[in-house]
Amino acid sequence: MRIRRILTAAIATAALAGLGLTGAATAQGAPSAVSPSQCREGGGEPRIDLPGNPCVGGKYDGQAVD
């Protein structure tokens, strides 16, 4: 019974570690800010009048416009 608990904990830890690595890899590829022209080319609208200057809609939705 004790071995099962240890094995289950080890498998759960390995699974969570794997999810953490994939999340870090996808977050790394995203630029922190886009230009107004990149926002428009991605199908969005740069809204520099809103707090944080977000790109609204399209591929870069929610990203800051530089």
Low-confidence stretches: none
| Percent of residues in beta strands | 5-15%
So what's the overall shape? rod-shaped
* Residues in helices, as a percent range: 40-55%
Largest sheet: 2 strands, parallel
Total number of helical segments? 2
Q: Which secondary-structure class do the elements indicate?
A: alpha+beta
- The largest sheet has its strands arranged as 1-4
Overall pLDDT confidence: 79
Number of strands: 4
Oligomeric form: single chain
Radius of gyration: 20 Å
- What separation lies between the terminal Cα atoms? 57 Å
Instruction: Output the helix-strand order.
Output: HEHEEE
Provide a brief overview of the structure.
With 66 residues, the protein is an alpha+beta fold. 52% of the residues lie in helices and 12% in strands.
Output the keywords.
alpha+beta; two-stranded antiparallel ribbon; 4 strands
Overview of the molecule:
The strands form 2 sheets. This protein has a two-stranded parallel sheet. A two-stranded antiparallel ribbon has the order 2-3. The chain is an alpha+beta fold and 66 residues long. A hairpin with an 8-residue loop joins strand 2 (45-46) and strand 3. The chain contains 2 helices and 4 strands.
